[in-house]
Fold this protein.
Amino acid sequence: MEAKNKTKKKFNYWYILLIIPFITTLWPGLYAFDHPRLFGIPFFYWYQLAMVIITAIFTAIVYIKVKDTE
Amino acid sequence: MNWSALIVFVIFFVFVTVLGFYAARWRRGDLTQLDEWGLGGRKFGTLVTWFLLGGDLYTAYTFIAVPALMYGSGAMGFYAVPYTILIYPFIFVVMPRLWSVSRKHGYVTASDFVRGRFNSSSLALAVAITGILATMPYIALQLVGMQAVISAMGFGHSGLSGELPLIIAFVILAIYTYSSGLRAPASIAIVKDIMIYITIIVAMIVIPIKLGGLGHMFDAAKEALAAKNPPGSFILDSKSFFAYGSLALGSALALFLYPHSLTGVLSSNHRNTIRKNAAILPAYSLVLGFITLLGFMALAAGIKVQGNDAIPALFLKMLPDWFNGFAFAAIAIGALVPAAIMSIASANLFSRNIYREYINPNCTPEQESKIAKLISLIVKVGALVFILFFPKTYAINLQLLGGIWILQTFPAIIVGLYTNWFNKWALVIGWFVGMATGTWMAFSQNMASTYPLHIFGATIPGYAAIFAVIVNFIVTVILTFIFRAMGMENGGDQTTEEDYKTAS
């Protein structure tokens, strides 16, 4: 019963962070290059590995921001 | 025979076997209930769920086949990385809803949910059959992964000496899954994942140093790819952009429709456990990215073998034997964990959605759980027989089809979590058309996952599962409009909007 008051909540804008990885990874034209290299790793490979970490950080931020609101 | 590798291998294998049998005592529950046997009592916290899902999703076959793809064709194989990036934002949003509604209504499978949501046992049957069909070849492929490391220790690929270790490993697996249920793979996953992390950290430090540094390794791999016939691509070619993106997206959306992934989700103790895991599971994706690069290291090291043997061969060339025993044990145990969870998940589907629904509607919970245990045995024996008596390519092709098929349950399960607008018969027909389209696309390309779509005068190669699910959606939406106009209704939705949000 108590939960009923909370159902009319607004859309939480933090969720937009979770759309960014789809934009930055789904079109390889953005990152299919050899250079610049990082520690000898071509851009194509280190960019995607970096996106793993960035997406995890985004997800953690959204978790912290939304967990108390629902 | 590589004795020092074999001895270390056997020691670790025996250790996890003992652990598997003791697992039944862990947070002891009444294993005669399907909830307890098949979902570990829905009690797993953040850390156990992390190990369980990690062990479940990043399988032995992945560790062997993904770098083999890089080794064989280059940059295209790296789609596994964006694939595993996109899974987590997606499950963060979607899966807490499934967890809540399943908790509230006691659903054990996705098929249970669909039945309650759309009041349709036909749709539930379609979802159950798709799940079982997609999972079976996946279990068989775990054996392929295991076979690769067993033969690398000197047992050979075929004949009794190659098959016996496989049979022994699977018999052990079958018995402890039978007796301990989901608790067995959960406890073994912890050991296995730690072993995988150690293996990869060591390999990523030692092998590039031996190959003269990362930069040199990549350049050598580039040369080796160019020398191949047909040449592999070192950096993705623009013709493959859509195929790469659609493979990543299609695989990411499909992963959590597989019964074994859902079992991992539903066995967690809280919806926030799933969200926390969406933020910490990418640690495995990073490991997968490094494992994928092992394929390039094998190229740079001048390894010349069949694809799936590339990684074991690289290890044998670059690392000491005793360490290889440890690494190979990690991969072999990495086959047992997902194989156990997959067989439990298919068993749950069969006993709940086929046995209880169609064969014995008045069965007691004890009977239901007993049937599930029995089915988990049959499924594993089936996988073993399949690998021993049929060409390996059958299992590989079926698994490829399984990925296409499982995505066809997306409209019913995932969209179903948000709305019951779709007509149930429209969903059944859409599912059927999607299954047929995807299967035809794969066959027309001689069992390739990408299909060259001719549209508006252009040819776009893309993942067949994505094309098929678009057809599926179009059919479902059009038929829903038609059926609604005719006054057909779904009737009785068991769930209310509240059920998808409650925390306990």
